[in-house]
Amino acid sequence: MGLFSKKYKFTNKKISKGGVMSSLFAIGAFSCLCVGVYKSYKVDGAGGTIVGILGAAAFLLSFIGLIVGVRSFKNEEAFLGFPWFGVVSNAIVWIFMMCVILIGI
Fold it and tell me: Tell me: the pLDDT tens digits for 89-100?
């Protein structure tokens, strides 16, 4: 066992472009969500149209990112770190926004 017992595995796998796109959509959706919550907090819940637009953008970006992330799992010759991050993050934001929308109805 000792110092040189680590096993390295060399592979031809590459980073999934769909996974990176999904992760970027997740970051964008989370950013829209945070800015919307902050703006709504600053005006004591009377955010108006801008908060609604940010919420809708977060909902749509997370939905698109979720679809792109799920589709990127089909590529077997790519690492799956970015697709997992994108899908999980987008699902969390999408479910949160869905709850906000359903509470508002």
Answer: 999 999 999 999
Pairwise CA distance, residues 103 & 74, whole Å:
35
Residue position matching structure tokens 């809708």: 56
Range of the domain at 29: 25-71+80-104
C-alpha separations of 35 from 14, 26, 38, 42, 101 in Å: 34, 14, 5, 10, 17
pTM across the whole model: 0.83
**Is the Cα dihedral 48, 57, 34, 97 positive or negative?**
positive
Start-to-end Cα distance in the chain: 62
Torsion 67-96-105-49 (CA) sign? negative
User: Is a pLDDT exceeding 90 seen at residue 28?
Assistant: yes
The dihedral region occupied by 75, where left means phi > 0, alpha psi between -120 and 50, and beta the remainder, is: beta
Tokens read off for 88 = 């999980």
In a domain, 12, yes or no: no
